[in-house]
Amino acid sequence: MDGMQDGTEARLRQELAACYRIFAHLGWTELIYNHITLRLPGPGQRFLINPFGLHYTEVTASNLVTVDLAGNVIGESRWGVNPAGFVIHGAIHEAVPAAHCVMHTHTTAGLAVACKRHGLSITNFYAAMLAGQVAYHDFEGITVNPEERGRLLASMGDKRLMILRNHGLLAWGETVPEAFVRLWTLNRACEIQMASESMRGEDIPVPDHVAAQASRSALQFDPRFGAGRDVFDALVRQIDRIDPSYRE
Questions:
Q1: Domain 3-247, CATH 3.40.50.1820 — does that match?
Q2: Which of 9, 16, 77, 128 could form a disulfide with 211, with the two C-beta atoms 3.0–4.6 Å apart?
Q3: What is the average pLDDT value for the chain, to the nearest integer?
Q4: In sequence order, which residues have a C-beta less than 8 Å from that of residue 166 and are 6 or more positions away?
Q5: Phi-psi sector, 75: left (phi>0), alpha (psi -120 to 50), beta
């Protein structure tokens, strides 16, 4: 990397690599599958994605792969990319200029809720923060069909969170920390729902007016309050203590 890209791109590469390590630390991995993508600044449409074949604990700033909107590798890389990895991500990056970072997971809790007909239940603290903020997209099989992109975008609308039915969770944000804190909140809501629905007795629904208040008061999504930056930085410090090799 050289010139203007040196500082900016190097910083973004380290931030994205750190995010992959955070996902691994949280147990949000699916062997070598799933993706977090990040738009690079500058001319053209360029994005960073994980090298296909590596576990999240092996992702580093230097081995992240640069791709275009079609998922084609730009420049030289000893690694390719998962062809299913960029259909969803590329569609969102292309259609939503503010979607600089897109995250997709198959966590047990997220996938379990995605398999429920009623989806996310507004019955817990975290779900209440997301009232009215989660879109749904019906399962169409492995995401390798470019024709699905339009339908996915129509399902997403103006939401930054989406439950892919029978499939998993998705979040986008203007920054890595923002996308992360949104996805963490949704996944946490799913974890609580999975636990509560396994217990006897009826869940207590959060009244609409209370959920609306909780949604308005969720400061962790607000750019005026860092939009997840403090949370993300705290986790990066944990990763630095465990294994700082992501910076390489």
A1: no
A2: 128
A3: 93
A4: 111, 114, 115, 139
A5: left
